[in-house]
């Protein structure tokens, strides 16, 4: 399951789902439709989602995008996907860079005694609330509140800004947007259908 979500201080949101399946997040595909906990959700192809996201970012005057633990994985996936469809330059024109709140929180809370800097734990510890993890929109809204709670200074933010071009090229290339070989993204969708068929067979056996 791939999902893109973006939350704005002005209250606007952007939320898209791309076909796929994951036992962890509660998503499944049945009869070519995506379900979250057995409720249908609308989907977009990966390219459509990226183009829509870039179009959305054009309205924001080159924002800095914020995410948790994004420098080690998420931004590599994003860079690989943008390269796959020749969209990296279009994307980079619309953003100023990224800030990863994981190292930022570790710096700001180094004397707090916290043992876990996972986003869910930080939100629960600093804000006293829990939320539905693995829902992109709720993740982003929780992260926005966490960012406000951290209250980083402009200098601290500047020290943590990075761009896609600053990521190691070798690491980006190791992230699979396509499965092995030359098979397309549709193969991921077919695999998701196979997983769902197995789950449905298991459900019938449990009845």
TrEMBL record:
Its EC number is 3.1.11.2. It catalyses: Exonucleolytic cleavage in the 3'- to 5'-direction to yield nucleoside 5'-phosphates. It comes from the Eukaryota. Keywords: Exonuclease, Hydrolase, Magnesium, Metal-binding, Nuclease. Its cofactor is Mg(2+). Signal peptide: none annotated. It is an enzyme of class 3 (hydrolase). Pfam families: RNase_T. Residues 56-147 form the Exonuclease domain. InterPro entries: Ribonucl_H (IPR013520), RNaseH-like_sf (IPR012337), RNaseH_sf (IPR036397), TREX1/2 (IPR040393). GO terms for molecular function: double-stranded DNA 3'-5' DNA exonuclease activity; metal ion binding. Belongs to the exonuclease superfamily. TREX family. This is exodeoxyribonuclease III.
